[in-house]
Design brief:
globular; FAD/NAD(P)-binding domain; alpha/beta; 18 helices; 533 residues; binds NADP nicotinamide-adenine-dinucleotide phosphate; 33% helix; 20 strands; 8-stranded mixed sheet
Length: 533
């Protein structure tokens, strides 16, 4: 039996839940299809030890409901996964969203019916649904990746991927644990589990510039202030380039005396979160002088915190300067490597040759392990969309449409896929963005568009190919002149994505305010660049 709705949403994470809320508000019937056994998206799957916000909790929360803001209190400046998951359940329960969420429903294919001008969806279990609109709320870091070493399936111990962490707690006591990866996820795991393990071996390919998170409980006085200033915080996030609360000094760092710059780095290092990354100087992402100087500042911190100087040098990134990747927020990460029970294997010196039934083999021999943790990231940005067989007009697949890299208009639509929208897909500002801030503006634009269509009697919207090409080009251009463009070895460029969809800049680096301005402008011009019929 095929169920019929006005709109189908794929994914019940931060963006899917908000989409459902807004669709209902418009008076549309909607159903959310979610692969997990529960809602939460990223915060459902990534339940590994140490998982927590890298955005300040109060800047990440939804802004759309005053009641919600009044009723919910975060306990920490950077709350941990269990609290975030509780928050999303609180939201879903408060707005009675769960009744329209189909759990355990992994979408296998979504096909456009040219004659009926509708989308047909099928899950891997054979559930079928049909709707005029489809909103892909699939997340930009959802399709988790295992490394392609031989023997990954042969390991007889426990294998865990950070993005598929089990619900029952993993006991590391007395266990020999190996972790592959040293990105933000790995950093959170390593610093959390090291004290529990009999031995922890960190297999690091590329060191990262970590900055202190400085998490702490929110005091009752702070709580009152945060509630009072909630909208000021959201307004600030709307103004800042990255949608965070961190505002850089408007001066170019190169125009500031060096002693003053160094004092600012220190103050930002003390402040924590993304302060040093996003709150530095206006030229931080362009000026190699500034980026290298911050890198040297951080390298000295690492040297001071890691007792063994040889080890310290291995933990200092050599392949990229500061700011070209999202920096992991750490607490005692570097001190963790002073522990007797923690070893670092530098994969640049001693590469992994294979995973064996008993552990990890490098060119130096085998390390026997009880548990292997893969914190090896994602097929970023395009992965989850491409795992679904999405076919638009005349049966053209999204895989075909994106065979030379993703193409989108504003990150929300793809030519030949009418009435299908993406949230946090390619070409949005998510590389720096505070996700909920970007999600809300994406969803509000899509909902505004659907409202406009209803008010003006339109049944279909699709981007023109010209507008799609122009936006895609604009995204590539947006990275030019930024240091990130020189460092292609990151998920911003899909560095760990399968062959063929690697190497394109996957996002929009023009900043959140500019993105919002363009969104508003396109809508104000009657959805310029889109065909309405
Ligand atoms: P990631 O940044 O892509 O890091 C993946 C790690 O796995 C890297 O260290 C990578 O090394 C390593 N790796 C991949 N394949 C490998 C292989 N074959 N052999 C050895 N090492 C391999 O992924 P992530 O740490 O999961 O973080 C992804 C993004 O998620 C972050 O940038 C951040 O935006 C977000 N995140 C957010 C939070 C938060 O909000 N609190 C927490 C965690 C993550 P190379 O660098 O050498 O490729």
């Amino acid at each position: 039996m095929t169920q019929e709705f006005d709109a189908i949403v794929i994914g019940a994470g931060v963006s899917g839940l908000y989409s459902l809320y807004r669709l209902r508000e418009l008076g549309l019937s909607a159903r959310v299809f979610e692969a997990g056994t529960d809602i939460g998206g990223t915060w459902y799957w990534n339940r590994y030890p140490g998982a927590r916000f890298d955005s300040e909790s109060y800047s990440y929360q939804y802004s759309f409901s005053q009641e919600l803001l009044d009723e919910w209190e975060w306990s920490e400046h950077f709350s941990a996964q269990p609290e975030i998951e509780r928050y999303l359940h609180f939201v879903a329960d408060k707005f009675d969203l769960k009744r329209d969420v189909q759990l355990n429903a992994r979408v296998a294919n979504v096909k456009y019916d040219d004659a009926a001008k509708c989308w047909d969806l099928e899950t891997t279990d054979g559930l079928r649904a049909r709707a005029r609109f489809v909103i892909c709320a699939t997340g930009l870091l959802s399709a988790h990746q295992f490394p392609d070493y031989p023997g990954v399936d042969s390991f007889k111990g426990v294998s865990l991927h950070s993005a598929r962490w089990p619900k029952t707690p993993v006991d590391f006591t007395g266990k020999r644990v190996g972790i592959i990866g040293s990105g933000p996820t790995a950093v959170q795991i390593i610093q959390s589990i090291a004290p529990e393990c009999a031995h922890l071996t960190v297999f690091q390919r590329t060191a990262n510039w970590c900055t202190p998170l400085r998490n702490r409980p929110i005091t009752p006085d702070e709580q009152q202030e945060l509630k009072k200033n909630a909208h000021e915080i959201f307004d600030l996030c709307k103004r800042t380039w990255a949608g965070f609360i961190h505002e850089p000094d408007p001066r170019a760092g190169v125009d500031v005396p060096k002693a003053e710059r160094l004092a600012r780095y220190q103050a930002l290092y003390e402040r924590g979160g993304f302060s040093l990354w996003l709150g530095n100087y206006s030229d931080s992402f362009m000026s190699r002088i500034i980026a290298d100087e911050v890198a040297e500042f951080l390298a000295d911190k690492i040297r001071a915190r890691v007792k063994d100087p040889v080890l310290a040098e291995k933990l200092i990134p050599k392949s990229h300067t500061f700011g070209t990747k999202r920096c992991p927020g750490e607490k005692n990460y570097y001190e963790t490597f002073n522990r007797e029970n923690v070893t670092l294997v530098d994969l640049r010196e001693t590469p992994i040759t294979k995973i064996t039934p008993t552990g990890i083999e490098t060119v130096n021999g085998t390390q026997d392990l009880d548990i292997i943790i893969y914190a090896t990231g994602f097929h970023s940005v395009t992965g989850e969309l491409l795992r679904i067989d999405i076919r638009g007009e005349q049966g053209t697949s999204l895989q075909q449409h994106w065979s030379d890299g993703p193409k989108t208009n504003l990150g929300v639509q793809f030519a030949g896929f009418p009435n299908l929208f993406a949230i946090m897909g390619p070409h949005n500002p998510a590389l720096f963005c505070n996700i909920t801030r970007c999600v809300e503006s994406n969803v509000d634009w899509i909902i505004g568009c659907i409202r406009y269509m209803r008010e003006h009697g339109f049944k279909s919207i699709k981007t023109t190919t010209e507008a799609e090409n122009a936006w895609t080009e604009r995204c590539y251009e947006s990275a030019k002149g930024l240091l990130i463009d020189e460092m292609r070895d990151s998920w911003f460029f899909g560095s760990t994505n399968p062959d063929g969809i690697r190497g394109h800049f996957l996002l929009f680096a023009g900043g959140v305010p500019e993105y919002r301005r363009i969104f508003a402008d396109v809508a104000a011009k009657g959805y310029e660049g889109f065909e309405l019929s």
